[in-house]
Design goal:
Layout: E1 3-4, H1 11-14, E2 19-20, E3 24-29, H2 35-48, E4 53-57, H3 62-70, H4 77-81, E5 85-89, H5 97-111, E6 115-119, H6 121-126, H7 133-139, H8 151-167, E7 172-178, H9 192-195, E8 198-204, E9 211-218, E10 228-233, E11 236-238
Parallel strand pairs: 3-7, 3-8, 4-5, 4-6, 6-7
Antiparallel strand pairs: 1-2, 8-9, 9-10, 10-11
Helix pairs in contact: 5-8
Length: about 240
């Protein structure tokens, strides 16, 4: 089996070589735990290897993302200019979820990235509209018997449809999700963790400031269930 490097010092060894090629891995945790940085670090590793990569963001615009990367010494602008990096951003309040799925599918098919980071699936889940039931079902080729769909069914449909379309192509993807406070599930929709091949959880102790990363599930590797300590340094995350 082939593996794709995480770009994080020490983490490839923990995972038995990195992320399995052509896999979907959920990166989950509360606010401020380092999920987006882990994703950007993964993409930057690919850029250094001259791979095509794609960042899909539902939360930040392109300028904010570029500035965030610069804080860790990652100059992404030159990779945008040579088309090695593609950044897709969506203003979800004014964009129909069907248009989002279709746009992402088209761009993945056209750009053919080896690495994808989607940040975050939680936002897409929030904007799966009940009123779009029939149109959404047709767009995602879902076999739904009823036209009156609950919000939960539409959310699952949007998530499953998007992830299945991403997985159709030869890429290795990280899907970022935020865990709402007090929730025991690993994603806001409580379903993404079952679709993905692996689940990695990031946590931060607010009292001590210490950070931990736990491999909750990884179908392609034998792994410890105990957390690993990690630090957020000037060059990103280190295990």
């Amino acid at each position: 089996m082939k593996f794709i490097s995480t770009g994080v010092n020490g983490f490839d060894k923990v995972l038995g070589g990195g992320y399995a090629e052509k896999s979907l891995t959920l990166i989950t945790g509360g606010p401020g735990t380092g999920k987006t940085i882990l994703g950007l670090q993964y993409l930057y590793e690919g850029l250094k290897k001259k791979e095509k990569v794609m960042l899909i963001s539902f939360e930040e615009d392109k300028e904010v993302i570029l500035e965030q990367a610069k804080n860790f010494g990652w100059d992404l602008e030159k990779y945008l200019k040579n088309s090695q990096l593609e950044i897709l951003t969506f203003d979800m309040p004014s964009t129909h979820v069907v248009q989002v799925v279709e746009k992402i599918s088209k761009e993945v098919r056209t750009h053919k990235p080896k690495r994808i980071v989607l940040d975050s699936i939680s936002v897409l889940s929030l904007f799966a509209e009940v009123a779009a039931g029939v149109e959404l079902a047709n767009s995602l080729d879902l076999n739904l018997d009823q036209l009156k769909l609950s919000e939960g069914v539409l959310t699952i449909g949007a998530v499953m449809g998007l992830l299945s379309k991403i997985k159709q192509y030869d890429n290795t993807s990280l899907i970022i999700a935020e865990i709402p406070e007090g929730q025991k599930m690993l994603s806001r929709d409580s379903y993404t963790e079952f679709i993905c091949d692996g689940v990695i959880k990031l946590e931060k102790n607010e009292k001590t400031g210490k950070r931990e990363i736990t491999i909750v599930k990884m179908r392609t590797a034998n792994h410890k269930l105990t957390p690993f300590k990690f630090i957020m340094g000037k060059k990103g995350i280190n295990i």
